[in-house]
């Protein structure tokens, strides 16, 4: 891995931001750059395909969860009452007893949040490791990869009744008229099939080097 100066990293980050904010995106095929390090990839400015819906990490779970719990006024109120019991003038009962209820409540809430976040982690891991087919220039065929390995500029092959791993540009279909039907129930809840047509003027075989100009992905 080559060393880059902070100025070069800043300049590269600004270029990536400008590339992402353009109304029309210039996408380059990854085939000529297969096997190169990330810094030499033409589409390195675009984010990857891995999803992450978790809120916490193992190291920052306790401080982040406490920060979130103390955003609730009820927790601040009961903690304030427990602190006041340590003042001899205003204490009503033993200070240690006042801490037991709020500690139990916050511990149970933390366990619930940890379990929910762990379930989200399992769901993310299952989706990110779902297999898909990506074309490899070295192997000269579609190779099995994972959803999180899909990058902007890759050629992805999708079969009938398969889930689409990313926002894809339709280049070719098995239909002689270049038509396919997709279901977007996971996005908008609509179960009716939508018709999509492959781009005209493209050859069937995958070229080594090509460029695409397209709009931003639909949100």
What topology emerges from the helices and strands here?
Elements: H1 6-21, E1 24-28, H2 61-69, H3 73-84, H4 95-128, E2 131-136, E3 141-146, E4 156-157, E5 179-184, H5 185-188, E6 190-197, E7 211-215
Antiparallel strand pairs: 1-7, 2-3, 2-4, 5-6
Helix pairs in contact: 2-4, 3-4
Tell me about this structure.
The protein has 5 helices and 7 strands; from the N terminus they run αβαααββββαββ. It has 219 residues and is of the alpha+beta class. The protein is elongated and about 85 Å long. The chain starts with 5 loop residues before the first helix and ends with a strand. The relative contact order is 0.15.
Q: Which features would summarize this protein structure in a list?
A:
7 strands, single chain, two-stranded antiparallel sheet, alpha+beta, 219 residues, 5 helices, 3-stranded antiparallel β-sheet
Q: Outline of this structure?
A:
The chain has 219 residues and is α+β, with helices and mostly antiparallel strands. It has helices at residues 6-21, 61-69, 73-84, 95-128, 185-188; strands spanning 24-28, 131-136, 141-146, 156-157, 179-184, 190-197, 211-215.
- Overall, the morphology is elongated
N to C succession of SSEs: HEHHHEEEEHEE
The termini sit apart by: 35 Å
Mean pLDDT: 80
Q: Reading side by side through the largest sheet, how are the strands ordered?
A: 3-2-4
Rounded to an integer, what's the Rg over CA atoms?
A: 26 Å
The poorly predicted ranges are none
DSSP helix fraction:
25-40%
The total beta strand count reads 7
**What percent strand?**
15-25%
Please give the count of helices. Answer: 5
The main pleated sheet reads as: 3 strands, antiparallel
Structural class: alpha+beta
